Amino acid sequence: MGRQVKRVPMDFYFPIGASWADAEYDKHCATCPKEDHDDCDWPHMDGVPEGEGWQLWQTVSDGPISPVFATADELIDWMCQPVPKQTQDKRSYVSGNRAYPDMPWDQGWRREIAEPFVKCCGWAPSMVVANGVVMDGATHAVKTLEPSK
Predict the structure, then answer these.
(1) How far is the C-alpha of 48 from the C-alpha of 51, rounded, in Å?
(2) Tens-place pLDDT, residues 48-58
(3) Which domain covers residue 87, as residue numbers?
(4) I want to staple 68 with a disulfide (CB 3.0 to 4.6 A). Which of 2, 3, 53, 139 is the partner?
(5) Biggest alpha carbon–alpha carbon distance for the chain
(6) CA 120 to chain centre
(7) Cβ contacts of 84 within 8 Å, gap of 6 or more
(8) Residue 62: which residues within 8 A CB-CB, separation 6 or more?
(9) How does pLDDT run across 25-49, given as a tens digit for each residue?
(10) pTM (2 decimals)?
(11) Residue 36 per-residue DSSP state
């Protein structure tokens, strides 16, 4: 469970908040002759197409939670923006009844976390407990990049 940066085609469209895995399962069920789909070989599932665009995904639902951006900096700018109230209600299904970006900060990510997360980490769990301290996974991942003091 976490957040992941994916490189997708610039014209890639998949509904924000929808599950890629569920869509692939539905596509498979429509074409598979087997009655019990638990017997199916799932490693053949189509992967998300790769490209030059930048998009943030949630790994719980395995689906996008941002639009596709042309640059890493555009994605970072998006991540750092608070979500307008009128959009929060429409997007609340994305992350446990709270609009994204709810992790790591309700009002948008801090740039000093978003930038190294996108450009260096690329993936982090939703939450980490380290030395008895609970923190969001992105902050922990970025802190592990910093040299020890």
Answers:
(1) 10
(2) 899 999 999 98
(3) 2-145
(4) 53
(5) 60
(6) 15
(7) none
(8) 19, 20, 21
(9) 788 778 777 776 666 665 555 688 9
(10) 0.76
(11) -
